[in-house]
């Protein structure tokens, strides 16, 4: 109701109109906030969201709510460099940005699949929403499988999400035999391989399993780089990662029994490692060979953690995966 003798600026609704339109008795603040989000009523900022012109959508929101939730939005909308026109967001899908707005307005977050959580995690880190980051991490961690954990690790490393990276490495350590023998392991980047080999806690019977995985990976990496799988090319693609394989934990018989290893190592490396295995400390180990002779193991506090055997969902570090069939487009693991 407008008070007599008092005029209101054109386009500005009274408190009475606000309460009437939002329906105050409609189950509380969160529902009224959702009403504002869904209707865009009294919105004062426009976002043009999409990674391509075909994907672009226009979304409207309320500056005050965004700024109160995120220091990034505060600087973007009220800082010294704030712009008056539409704000363009070119690194997110419209549905992801809308999910972000839904969290800001209602504190709700709903993921239908891992792809949703990947994209929302990226957005939550970008706009500094730590509680949403935690929710995404928890959801993704609950879906870790032998067939997707390496790719989740690559995604986490790509966006510098240390907590998720640690959970992936813990999972890999506890299930190393299954992870290293899975076909998805062959598709990882060299940097991911290096991080995995840095781990002391890998539940393997011996370093033979690690070495076998590295050699299989090198064959596949040669194929990806369109190189022949000659020993010199395998050594080239493995690079300094070979220095993280603990050859000195093998027996002499195990070392001699690895097919093709003699051709990948230099004659000097092969001779010195074999001499060391036959008679420990009988010679210096080349700098290009790992000097750690302690077998990998999983500590007692990390044992007996099971893992479901099927893959659910996974995505890529650029957050653009779509699903076009029975298999994930990125890691080719079956989607359930």
TrEMBL record:
SMART domains: BACK, BTB. GO terms for cellular component: cytosol; P-body. Transmembrane segments: none annotated. It comes from the Eukaryota. GO terms for biological process: neurogenesis. Pfam families: BACK, BTB. Residues 43-113 form the BTB domain. InterPro entries: BACK, BTB/POZ_dom, SKP1/BTB/POZ_sf. This is BTB domain-containing protein. The lineage of its organism: Eukaryota, Metazoa, Ecdysozoa, Arthropoda, Hexapoda.
């Amino acid at each position: 109701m407008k008070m007599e003798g008092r005029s209101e600026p054109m386009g500005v609704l009274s408190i009475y109109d606000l309460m009437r339109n939002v329906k105050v008795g409609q189950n509380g603040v969160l529902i009224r906030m959702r009403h504002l989000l869904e209707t865009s009523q009294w919105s004062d900022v426009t976002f043009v969201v999409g990674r391509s012109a075909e994907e672009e959508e226009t979304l409207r929101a309320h500056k005050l709510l965004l700024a109160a939730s995120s220091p990034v939005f505060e600087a973007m909308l009220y800082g010294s460099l704030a712009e008056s026109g539409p704000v363009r967001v070119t690194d997110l899908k419209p549905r992801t940005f809308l999910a972000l707005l839904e969290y800001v307005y209602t504190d709700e977050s709903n993921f239908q699949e891992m792809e949703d959580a990947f994209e929302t995690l990226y957005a939550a880190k970008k706009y500094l929403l730590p509680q949403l980051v935690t929710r995404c991490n928890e959801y993704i961690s609950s879906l870790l499988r032998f067939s997707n954990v390496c790719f989740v690790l690559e995604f986490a490393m790509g966006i510098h999400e240390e907590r998720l990276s640690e959970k992936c490495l813990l999972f890999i350590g506890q299930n190393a035999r299954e992870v290293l023998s899975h076909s998805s392991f062959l598709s990882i980047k060299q940097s991911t391989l290096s991080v995995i080999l840095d781990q002391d806690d890998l539940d393997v019977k011996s370093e033979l399993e690690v070495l076998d995985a590295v050699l299989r990976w090198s064959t596949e990496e040669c194929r990806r780089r369109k190189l022949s799988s000659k020993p010199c090319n395998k050594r080239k693609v493995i690079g300094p990662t070979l220095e993280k394989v603990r050859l000195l934990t093998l027996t002499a018989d195990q070392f001699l029994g690895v097919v093709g290893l003699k051709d990948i190592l230099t004659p000097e490396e092969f001779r010195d490692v074999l001499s060391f295995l036959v008679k420990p400390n009988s010679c210096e180990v080349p700098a290009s060979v790992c000097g750690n002779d302690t077998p990998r193991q999983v500590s007692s506090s990390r044992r007996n953690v099971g893992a479901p055997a099927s893959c659910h969902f996974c995505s890529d570090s650029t957050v653009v995966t779509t699903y076009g069939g029975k298999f994930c487009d990125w890691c080719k693991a079956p989607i359930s």
